[in-house]
């Protein structure tokens, strides 16, 4: 299919979580919670192209503010490591040089890339951090969508595939087997950052907190005062952002959602979402929203797209035992349900 020109890409949030701060940049608010006379702190900061938010409860204002500041300091550190928009980041160095020679990386980045390859193998290639060339030709990096030609898709696919990434555990290096390969951290960056921020809060003695990366990947630590079931979280309706399709209470769990409505464009009456099937080179179809409950946010975020791409039957057969999956499918009527 020939390109239809540049079309506006629309973005929306996937999860609506109670008590999240709505402001941008560094923002902090202290309020006295009525239940148990605890303080509530809300703080947010922009990073990784989105907004991260923490909401936490405690008795010591200084400890709470210190915990939030250290959590966001960790977020900024991870952005310096993982950003593919910063030329100075560790990941950008890998993307620039790994096709020419093995690139030595930190233990942290090496282990994160090893986890990515594990997700790729377990998902039969549906999870793939080398999907960047496809995202680029479809216009999702520019903010304006376009339908590429079959020739463009074919050319991009030669640069896509997790098997192009070669890790040497002895030398702790990363190498690409083909020119033009690049690693896009979009499928794991937010989840990993949320987990690290939660770890920092725990280290500072915080027992009740909700940490969110853009509203699509969250972790609920403990429970807010007066609600022993946990933090109330709502999954939005894929076709109406003012409605929800599921409400649940999270306690020491993560929830991530991927939806075709998050980022998309319309060309000649057809909707194309940003959720790309790295095996075909085209956006996935059939499913409109997938939410994954998991012990870690890295896992919940990483698994949303493979389940979205493969669909209900594959997900029911292959999902890890410690995950729960809520899926909305695009049939004659929208069908949303938890997988057995």
Please tell me the overall pLDDT.
91
Q: Within the largest sheet, what's the order of strands? A: 4-5-6-11-12-15-20-21-22
User: What is the correct CATH architecture?
Assistant: Roll
Tally the structural domains.
1
CATH class: Alpha Beta
* H/E element order: EEEEEEHHEHHEHEEHEEEEEEEEEEHHEE
Per DSSP, the total helix count is: 8
Computed CA radius of gyration, to the nearest angstrom: 20 Å
Unreliable runs, pLDDT <50, ≥5 residues? 1-28
Give the DSSP E fraction (strand runs of 2 or more residues): 25-35%
Structural class: alpha+beta
**What is the CATH topology assignment?**
T-fold
Shape, per Cα inertia axes: globular
Structural write-up:
It is a single chain. With 340 residues, the protein is α+β, with helices and mostly antiparallel strands. The protein has a single domain (1-252), classed as T-fold (Roll). It contains 8 helices and 22 strands. It has helices at 61-82, 90-97, 107-122, 132-137, 150-157, 189-203, 297-310, 312-318; strands at residues 7-8, 10-11, 15-17, 27-32, 39-47, 50-58, 103-104, 144-145, 165-168, 173-176, 208-213, 217-221, 231-237, 240-250, 253-259, 263-267, 270-273, 276-277, 282-283, 287-294, 324-330, 334-338. It has a 9-stranded antiparallel beta sheet, covered by helices on one side. β18 and β19 (282-283) form a beta hairpin. α6 packs antiparallel against α7 and α7 (297-310) crosses α8 (312-318). Residues 1-28 have low confidence and may be disordered.
